[in-house]
Amino acid sequence: MRYTTIAAAAALACAPFTAAHSWVQQLRNVNNNGSYVGNWGYPRGYCAKGDSCDPGIINNFLIPATGLFIDDSNVLCKDSQQKAVQEDAVKYPRLQAVPGMHIALRYSENGHVSLNGTPQEDTNKFKPSKGGTVFIYGTTEPKEDEKLVNVLKWNKEGGGGDGRGVLLGTNDFDDGRCYENNNSPIAKARAALDPSYALGQTGEGNGEFGLPCESNIEFPKNATAGKPYTLYWVWQWNTPPGLDPNRPLGKDEYYTSCMDVDVVDTFSAEANAKPKYTTPQQDDASAAVKDFADRTAIYTNAIKGEIGPYFSKNQTTPGGLPASGTPSIPMTPGPTDIPPMSSRPGLPQPSQGASDGSGNIGNGNGGVVTVTDVVYVTVTAPNNGPTTLATVAIPTSEAAPQNSSGVQSVGNAPNPTGIPQLSQRPGRQPQATVNAAPFRGRLRRA
After folding, report:
1. Has residue 270 got a pLDDT over 70?
2. What residue segments make up the domains of the chain, in order of their start?
3. From the CB of residue 411, how many other CB atoms can be counted at a distance below 10 Å?
4. Nearest to 261 by CA among 300, 218, 291, 213
5. pLDDT 10s digits, 300-321
6. Backbone angles phi, psi at 230, to 5 degrees
7. What percent of the chain has pLDDT over 90?
8. How far apart are CA 212 and CA 110, in angstroms?
9. Distance CA 282, CA 287 (A)
């Protein structure tokens, strides 16, 4: 049964997982009053719903496409978005933005908000509250082969990862007002508060046309006019371990959009100006969400939100993302004064057994394998003292009881000359048994 579970999990890990999908569809400038101003802007390589293309194929990008967890081979941008070019610059141009102004990055919720908790959309099961977190990063030095794991290290100070970029904002995926026209209770309740219509048809119909979600950032004040500025929209929608029976180890799931903004000194910022560059299914929304200027998210640390082993094995803060109603379990670091296993003299390295699907490796006891190494040390005693044989039993398990004294002594023989006290030896305190024995004049290992 155990091997069947492992095989099934491996098969699921290798299968593509594309049930969910969202991507940036538009960018808008937002003035200090919260109104959308200026013209629309679009991501790289964009095509819209209603165009003669499949926007799900052109725009949607899941990371990783196969497997459970990300690694350093995963590129950040879809192949159609790796170059800083527009698919149709006349129809879907870049956004023009002024440094220090706010920007809204708009996207459809695709059922991850309005259908959450309903039988129609079971991909939301085992997922974080509020649909997870959207991280928005910026850089003036984009790469065509940009790697996701590097960008996730960028921080607000601009010093993370390789230092080429900065974290501009963290937003919950659910902005609190967005919905789709699907007759769900959430959609109807939100439409009553924020009715939405097709552009040019305001007031006509039931007001349930659908209202996109948005991520909000302040455009960097130090952006240089006349030069492009690149934005990376990264939606982290991972499944924590131990929740989904089909994926007991958890599952990474990221969706990204890559886009460029033309930095300008000024632009036409009339709130009611006739819009240009609209999509075939354009809504009539005229303002951003109310908290556009100070939005944040439940989960704001992309590294901690990572489920897989990449950052933990690279000596970065381990992952662990609480899901809705599921508290996170903090991971306590080990003592810093214990040398790594590979550098401890005389300690055998235990091998790892196969995983049981729960994330544990080894014999079913939480991944702990105890190996006892018995070392016989024979020394020449001083003329005025007895000769002793010290037998040291050293358990290599990393789960030694912390409340143990670590040393049990039998007999009253003094410590042999030249051997330091146990408290002076680096690493974990071994259990030692000291018995009187005749002098042997050699060192042997059993």
Report:
1. no
2. 13-313, 353-398+408-413+426-446
3. 10
4. 218
5. 999 999 999 999 987 543 333 4
6. -95, 135
7. 58
8. 9
9. 14
Q: Which residues contact 401 (CB under 8 A, 6 or more apart)?
A: none
Q: Which residue has the tokens 């999509």?
A: 279
Least confident of 248-252, 257-261, 319-323: 319-323
Q: What mean pLDDT comes out for the span 16-32?
A: 81
Percentage of the chain beyond pLDDT 70 is 64
The HSE-up count of residue 285 (CA atoms within 13 Å, CB side) is: 32
Return mean pLDDT, the chain: 76
Q: Can you list the positions of beta strands (E) in 108-246? A: 133-139, 165-172, 213-218, 228-236
Assess contact for 99 and 219: CB atoms under 8 A.
Answer: yes
Concatenated DSSP letters of 26-60 = EEEEE-TTSBEEEEEE--TT---TTSSS-HHHHH-
Half-sphere exposure at residue 44, Cβ-oriented, CA atoms within 13 angstroms = 23
Residue 233 near residue 259 (C-beta atoms within 8 A): yes
Task: Find out whether 225 and 189 touch, Cβ atoms under 8 Å.
Answer: no
Task: Pull the structure tokens for residue 436.
Answer: 């009187």
- Which residue, 351, 297, 288, is CA-closest to 321? 297
| Cis peptide preceding 64, ω within 30 of 0 | yes
Q: How far is C-alpha 46 from the chain's CA centre?
A: 26
Average pLDDT over residues 240-253: 95
**Tokens of residue 212, six digits:** 């996109």
Count how many residues are written for the chain. 446
CB neighbourhood size of 385 (10 A): 12
Can you tell me the distance from the alpha carbon of 283 to that of 270, in angstroms, rounded to the nearest whole number? Answer: 18
**Which residues are paired to 260 by β-bridges?**
230
Q: pTM here?
A: 0.69
Give Cα separations from 218 to 97, 98, 136, 256, 317 (angstroms).
10, 10, 10, 19, 28
Could you tell me which residue, 333 or 53, shows the higher pLDDT? 53
Tell me which residue of 394, 393, 396, 380 sits closest to 440, measured CA to CA.
380
Nearest to 276 by CA among 91, 103, 102, 94: 91
Q: Report whether pLDDT(390) > 80.
A: no
Q: Would you say 81 and 257 are in contact if contact means Cβ atoms under 8 Å apart?
A: yes
212 or 321, which is more confident: 212
